[in-house]
Every structure is written in C-alpha cells, then in structure tokens.
Amino acid sequence: MGWTGDPTYDLALTAGLAFAVVTAVASRFVTTPYGRFASTRLGPTVPQRIGWLLLEVPALIVFPAVYALGPQAAEPVPLGFAALWLFHYANRALFFPLRMKVRPGARMGLVVPLTGWFVVPLHAWLYATWYARLGTHLTPAWLTDPRFGAGLATYAVGQTLVLHSEAVLRGLRAGDDSGYHIPQGGGFRWVSSPHYLGEILAFTGMALASWCPGGLFVLTITLANLVPRAAATHAWYRQTFPDYPPGRRALLPGVW
Ligand SMILES: NC(=O)c1ccc[n+]([C@@H]2O[C@H](COP(=O)([O-])OP(=O)(O)OC[C@H]3O[C@@H](n4cnc5c(N)ncnc54)[C@H](OP(=O)(O)O)[C@@H]3O)[C@@H](O)[C@H]2O)c1
Fold first, then answer.
1. Would you say the CB of residue 106 lies under 6 angstroms from ligand 1?
2. pLDDT tens, 179-217?
3. Structure pTM?
4. I want to staple 97 with a disulfide (CB 3.0 to 4.6 A). Which of 28, 52, 154, 214 is the partner?
C-alpha cells in the first residue's frame, strides 16, 4: 500500500496497522494483564515496575539511533519534533514507571513487554524516520501550516491531561497505602480514565503536527489498547465502589 512511496516505510506501517487490528480483536476477549487486571492466565509474569521499563525503554534507544542517521537530523524543525518525542517518552519510559506507587507483589504479564517489543520500537522507527529522512516538508515554512498549529495544540492539551491525571493517581496512595480509591478532580470529574483520553489526544496531535503517516499506526494501536481498557476500568470502578460518582463516564465526557 502506498502511504509514502518509500517501500520499507509503507511495509512497516501496513504491518503495524495489521497488528493493531489483531490487537483490537484480541482486546475484546482478553484484558491486558497488568495493574488491577493482572493475571497469570497468559503465562509468566515479571515485577510490575520492571515490566514497564522493559516495555518502554527500547523507545529511548531506537529513536535516537534511527534519528541520528537521517539526512535532516541536524535541521531545526526535525530537531524540535525529536525533542518533543523524547520528552513524551521520557515520561512514559522513565518518569512514569520510576515514580509509580507499586502495590507489594504487583506483577505484569510478560506477554505485555513481549508484544510491546514489536509496537514500541516500530513507533520509534516510524517517527524517527519521518522526522529525519522522509518528512522533507519539515522546514521552517511548515510552522505556519494549520496542521502544525492544530496538532501542537491538541498534543499540549492531551499530554497535560496525561501528566495531571497520572499525578492524581499517584497522589491516591500516600505513605505505605497500596489500595485503590476513587480519584477526584481534573479530568476525573468527567471520566474514569482521563489519562487514556489524554494519551489518545496527544498521539492525534503528534501525528497531525508533522503530518506523519506512522502516527496512524500509533493512534490505532493506542485506541485498540485503551478503549477496551477504559470500558473494563469503568465497570471495575462501578462494581468496586457503590458510591462511585453516577455521572462519571468511561472515556468521553458526557457521552460514554
Ligand atoms: N498508548 C498505549 O497503547 C497505552 C497502553 C497502555 C497504557 N498507556 C498509558 O500508560 C499510562 C498508564 O496506564 P495504566 O493502564 O497503567 O493506567 P492505570 O491502570 O490507571 O494505572 C496507573 C497507575 O495508577 C495506579 N492507580 C490506578 N487507579 C488507581 C486508583 N483508583 N487508586 C490508586 N491507584 C490507582 C495504578 O496502580 P496499579 O498498577 O496497582 O493498578 C498505576 O500505578 C496511561 O497514561 C496510559 O494512557 C498507553
């Protein structure tokens, strides 16, 4: 399929989209085994924090290595995009797992990092290749394109929602507390998983801002992962807390 005219990129993107479709179908039957839905049903497990690091850290290795080899690597606009991408992944791969309040004995199914080793490096490769090699429109003139402005604004709203919601969740476990509580404030006023909504918005904005075809894969796999998990999380809250706010929705304020 001709996404960009570059056969390797197009093949990688098509393979990624096919994987996202498989994930979307599988997610209807299995909830990814980590966090409140951890289980041994899908095989061996690893300590939760280690699982997150194994899953996400490859992004911080693949992206700079691929980016540095591109002919546009030293150009200012690609450099700006690369910095934003690394900022995003510094949170996901390092800050989030290292700061999370882990329940004693919490584990993650090894299947999560194992499947992630296809998804995360592919995500890094698709963006690094686009910024440093294929996105030849990423010159200073691109900064006046409405797609750049709209994408950056959407990214900023989404990532702010992610960072704030993750901070609210961390704040629910003070001291040695390792229980679950009803989150309040910020995006939690409207939905049970505002950090998932933020992630979807952030990846929409990231793709739009540089008009990156690879962003379609990242967005599709994120929807395949997070929409079913938002539904399961919302149902879990309702079942666990009889006093759960009745007007709160799963993912989309006022809608669902
Ligand atoms: N792009 C993608 O495909 C993708 C996929 C998955 C996740 N993510 C992103 O990764 C981040 C983390 O996702 P996640 O699924 O781990 O989120 P999560 O289930 O909400 O958990 C995040 C952290 O908050 C804790 N927590 C959650 N609810 C809590 C409550 N009611 N009371 C006390 N602590 C609570 C969790 O503890 P426990 O671990 O003990 O439950 C965990 O440490 C999110 O921002 C998400 O958007 C992205």
1. yes
2. 999 999 999 999 999 999 999 999 999 999 999 999 999
3. 0.97
4. 52
